């Protein structure tokens, strides 16, 4: 079915100037960008976005990294978009990411891992709404 998922190009990938290369991977895989914005997350925005991880030992480093520079946040739409995006990204830890995935090609570490993508339908719904109002999403049909 046609799904929407929330994707973030993280500060490391923005700094490497590979926003376009990452967008190309989405588009070549049949995903459409139906909403997008660049922004420098505040501490509160990053903490709220990653609230489910707040008890994890890496939470402070994750928030510090995600606020270290601008990110690009987008909604991807297409057939099976949630899993398709996760397949394109590869494993969270780039050392474990399959060849040809975004993280294998552009990520440096588990923290600076180039992209985020929603991990389930429930997360996608929450995460899309966290960054975008309905009237900011432009469905492609
Ligand atoms: P992301 O998909 O954005 O979701 C949470 C992020 O925490 C994850 O990508 C990683 O960049 C980061 N992280 C750091 N350490 C870990 C870990 N041990 N397990 C999972 N995520 C981690």
From TrEMBL:
The active site is at 116 (pros-phosphohistidine intermediate). It catalyses: a ribonucleoside 5'-diphosphate + ATP = a ribonucleoside 5'-triphosphate + ADP; a 2'-deoxyribonucleoside 5'-diphosphate + ATP = a 2'-deoxyribonucleoside 5'-triphosphate + ADP. InterPro entries: NDK-like_dom, NDK-like_dom_sf, Nucleoside_diP_kinase. It is found in: Cytoplasm. SMART domains: NDK. Belongs to the NDK family. This is Nucleoside diphosphate kinase. The lineage of its organism: Bacteria, Pseudomonadati, Pseudomonadota, Gammaproteobacteria, Pseudomonadales.
